[in-house]
Amino acid sequence: xxxxxxxxxxxxxxxxxxxxxxxxxxxxxxxxxxxxxxxxxxxxxxxxxxxxxxxxxxxxxxxxxxxxxxxxxxxxxxxxxxxxxxxxxxxxxxxxxxxxxxxxxxxxxxxxxxxxxxxxxxxxxxxxxxxxxxxxxxxxxxxxxxxxxxxxxxxxxxxxxxxxxxxxxxxxxxxxxxxxxxxxxxxxxxxxxxxxxxxxxxxxxxxxxxxxxxxxxxxxxxxxxxxxxxxxxxxxxxxxxxxxxxxxxxxxxxxxxxxxxxxxxxxxxxxxxxxxxxxxxxxxxxxxxxxxxxxxxxxxxxxxxxxx
Length: 308
Description:
Structural class: alpha/beta
Radius of gyration: 19 Å
CATH topology of the largest domain: Hypothetical Protein Tm841, Chain: A,domain 3
Mean pLDDT: 86
Low-confidence stretches: 282-308
Number of strands: 12
CATH architecture of the largest domain: 2-Layer Sandwich
Shape: globular
Distance between the termini: 29 Å
Helix content: 25-40%
Number of helices: 8
């Protein structure tokens, strides 16, 4: 049975990118429902799926995060993984959907869960902001803060993989991925075509779609005047080959299969020192054959997951 990929709100469960993408388990209202309801919801997921990977944002209310850890502790379950990557909300929603895509493949729960850290490296996420006065999750200079108070100022911000901030002007753009990606755009209370007319072409985005702006985005970016974007690998075959090309280990503590040096279920780490991930390519097996067996990985795919 496929591992459940859970999110903490319905707007973090993006529509499926293909007909094989598994539905997300939505754990809504964790901060307002009785604890018994949360325990029951997790128990149902464990009974139905065996393992649960919860992907949640740093912008969720603290009460939600406390509830997640409380439920995991009370259930005394090493089959629940809690993963909070350093991604803004739209990028995190993209990551959750990629995991839902991979959940249909022949990946063990430990490999699927630890694949989240690997796939995070290939997501470029940012936003066009009308103000950076309350942006405290990324380094912002005093000069940029001062300019944000000038009426009409707009800023392009790359939050991941390397934070960068630029003030909007003719021809201004941000450094993008060096491999083929698709782009997702979610519009807030800001009017601009910079993301679709300038950034997407400069990043050579091979697909451009709109999504609903996650409710957590305003909290994460410090303003509702924004247009959030995320560039990602859309093809299941590429995602599958990236994951299966990483050397698999056995967790020395709980015995589950994993990739990388940290188990997402028990948090135990190994002394191995991984190398840098390889660049993805599109010369892979088709999605139709991916779950049946792993595609033959070329040397450029034979890597280990970065530490961290």
